[in-house]
Amino acid sequence: MTLEDLLAREAIRDTMAQYTTAGDRLKVDDYADCFTEDGVMEAEHEQADRRFRYEGREAIRAWQARWLERTLAGEKVHDASFARHHLSTSKIDLTGPDSARARTYWVAWTDIGPDHAGYYLDTFRKVGGDWLIAHRLVREDWRSPDSLFGTAVSKSRS
Questions:
Q1: Could you give phi then psi for residue 55, rounded to 5 degrees?
Q2: Which CATH topology does 3-156 take?
Q3: What are phi and psi of 110, to 5 degrees?
Q4: Whole-structure pTM value
């Protein structure tokens, strides 16, 4: 492994941390800036109301802006008073000088403790000096029967 490889992996981890903290804090621009201009954010789920796909940074920004606008207007997007996504094991494979893939486990905590958990399957692309998410597939492995986050996807649609 070269120093350049280590720096790329650390830059990718930094993008993952920015994504997570920006999402939990509803920092719309910081969140959207984690994606390439043509980036894709999607979730597969057996229940239709939990599936989504947003193509392009502006569509991802608009999705997050709806969460923020509805929250500021006093609407309940979900029943949690907070959400904190914690990342754990992350396997990053550099696939070229400007491309990488990663598989990262996550768990979301809310007022009840562990609320739901799964993993991200990511494709990263280096744009300028930044490693950005070109495609993120969110897979949920587990959800508490008492989840406070269950309505988040359906209530954030346009």
A1: -110, 125
A2: Nuclear Transport Factor 2; Chain: A, (3.10.450)
A3: -135, -165
A4: 0.93
